[in-house]
Amino acid sequence: MKLTSLFAGLFLASAAVAETPVLTVYTYDSFVSDWGPGPAVESAFEAKCGCDLQMIGAGDGAALLSRLRLEGSRTEADIVLGLDTNLTAAAAETGLFSPISLSADYAVPGGWSDTYFAPFDWGYFAFVHNTDLTAPTNFRGLAASDLKIVIQDPRSSTPGLGLLLWIKAAYGDEAADIWADLSDNIVTVTAGWSEAYGMFLDGEADLVLSYTTSPAYHLIAEEDSSKTFAVFDEGHYMQIEVAGKLATTDQNSLADQFLQFMVSDEFQSIIPTTNWMFPAVTPKNGLPDGFPQALSAEQSLILSPEQAAAQRSAALDEWQSALSQ
User: pTM for the whole thing?
Assistant: First the structure.
């Protein structure tokens, strides 16, 4: 009788586990790190959904699209979180994403409208440096200096691709010349943001490609005011990070629930002091003290997803040519 009860209990427990729906989210490594938003997002959503949220790091942002292309319709992902508008046109062309419909009061500059993707945060690329450094005020000044920089690979990293399009947006046909002049300033090119920022913190470069919001981390989390960013005359390229639902998902309702949760106050309040970006929907309590202000429209550069897709190949060729000299 006791054995019968034991086996029955084990069966019921196993059945309960088997019935727990699993939602798989591909994202970038820093999002799911111990200090990133992932742990708090997972805990908060699982408390609502009665599901198992599995967030899988897949390198840096641009590597997500490469992985999806490789896996195709065989992908286990239900959601991809961490592409940006420089990649959304190419992502939509794969046919792997399903249309979505969300209700949100977006604070993304210029508003938001897209069939397949919804934003979860945004920011401006910038070169971060120590406050005791006299930084250049434009790319030409940086190239003319003997300052050393570390950047990310545009083939695997969204900041790396953002830098290519920043220079392209600011200089157009002169972008190749800028890269040629910058090439001797570059210490190395890393696969992702985390490696590059770590090198900068270790003193291996004077400046690192990051975000205008990065110094806020040091100020708020570490009470360290020794970091700032270089304000460039050309303006700063914007990044809008997005998530989308895979057409092959077998958790359609759960995926929709997660995307709506993503634009909720609970999720968006996590973003500023974990992902250190501007939230796509302004939290009810606003931004934390020490967070930077948004730049003016005149200082903000961005290409549309279609323009970014059209410019990407030429910009990548210019970058590779300059760095191979």
Answer: 0.91
